[in-house]
Amino acid sequence: MRTISKKFLSTAAILSLVACGGSGADAGSVESAGSRSSSEQGEVRSISAKDKRQGAEAHPQLLQEFGGAYTGPQSAYVVRIGQDIAVQSGLGDARSDFTVTLLNSPVNNAFAIPGGYVYLTRQLMALMNDEAEMAGVLGHEVGHVAAEHGRKRQKAAKRNSLLGALGQIGAAVLLGDSALGKLGQEVFGTGSQLLTLRYSRKQEYEADDLGIRYLASAGYAPDALSTMLESLAAQSAIDARVAGRDARGVPEWASTHPNPVQRVSRAAKNAGKLGVSGGVRNREAFLKNVDGILYGDDPKQGVIEGNSFLHPDLKLKFTVPNGFAMQNGTRAVTINGSAGQGQFTTGPYNGNMTTYIDNAFKALSGKGQNISYGEIQRTTVNGLPVSYAIGRVNSRSGQVDVTVFAYEFSKTSAFHFATLAPAGRASVFSSMYDSVRRLTAKEAAAIKPRKIDVVTVRRGDTIDSLASKMAYTSYQKDRFLVLNRMRSTDSLRAGQKVKIVTY
Questions:
Q1: Is 141 annotated in the active site?
Q2: pLDDT per residue as tens digits for the range 146-205
Q3: Does the fold of domain 450-502 match that of domain 299-442?
Q4: Catalytic option among 141, 148, 186, 206
Q5: Which of 117, 119, 129, 250 has its Cβ near the most Cβ atoms within 10 Å?
């Protein structure tokens, strides 16, 4: 969450855009060709003007949703490799047809949208161990667009009213009519986080196959996607083990895809079927470029530590109840749980808290509609002046309480929670409301960014000795092994390069 005030981002347009998918070609032509890429069939399909226009429209919104573009030296490298692999799809006739972006996001994710827009998060890049793995992930995402999986998903989403896509209490409650649908999309902001997570098993396998073929046609080792999937499966296992210590609710890339183990073996088998021996991995070049990349949360946007969110610049902290998870974004911190959902964000403030709360409800209500709320209550929390109000809305599945709980940090700045819970259960967030407080200067200064440090193994170094340098207090060895796609039985050799996470 950045320090500047931003209006709630409506993800409805983004979800609709990406769900349309494709480049205007018939998806059947891809499937009937046994998942052959267009370039292999001698076909180059120009990206339509409509797709370019819609992609350009969604691009700045996606940047806002995923932490903005990463500005480190790694960006140019990702752009070059991403454009090289995207061209293999035949969706455009030049590298310049594709806009590839490295995102400043601590979530393992990658996706592509119509118009030639391809995205990779710095966190997922840090998990990779060579250039071919990065090309494989980007190729997989481009494969979804090439096969027009989004168009098919849109039809399924219409049949299911998007309930399955959101999969939370707010979905069933809020998608019954336009005003509440907007509320659900804007409060929870999950639309763009879930853009690439709801394909069918068949579609995921087809995107894997296309990504593998793109790798081979670009001269990379075609088994690179399978090794990346192996690392991702291992990272998912660690995330599950530390659940409750790192309350990050949005799933990593591919978390709802087919069984990870089965998918790894399938990708490796299909890569072997191509009959391509060798292929470029470019490990040294990749490690040189990933060295120094930011890892985990960006303190400038706040950090998540266990169940707490801390922002060193804003000098504030709050803690979510047990059973709830958080996802930090540029405009807000999203809170999700089975008992309710919400966001912590800000808005323009001129010293009038009544106006501030009214504007917050209006932002949630949708154009031309309003949520009726009760009398504004006032109190203090940890020395901060607080104002709050609760509204109640009807839905097909019952009544829902909508709460705006706002804090005055100065005469010109305020922050608030916007939460949803089943009627009569708004108190589920009481401990969270009461936890908001200012950070001391010492506490704020103690929040430091983590980064990837590529080191050269020296004589006498062991996995245990290097793992002990990882900037974590728990699971140091496990994190080191996953980060380097190693097993505990592996041995290190002098001169070998490995990644560690340092401050």
A1: yes
A2: 887 766 565 554 444 322 322 222 222 222 232 333 334 434 333 333 333 457 778 888
A3: no
A4: 141
A5: 119
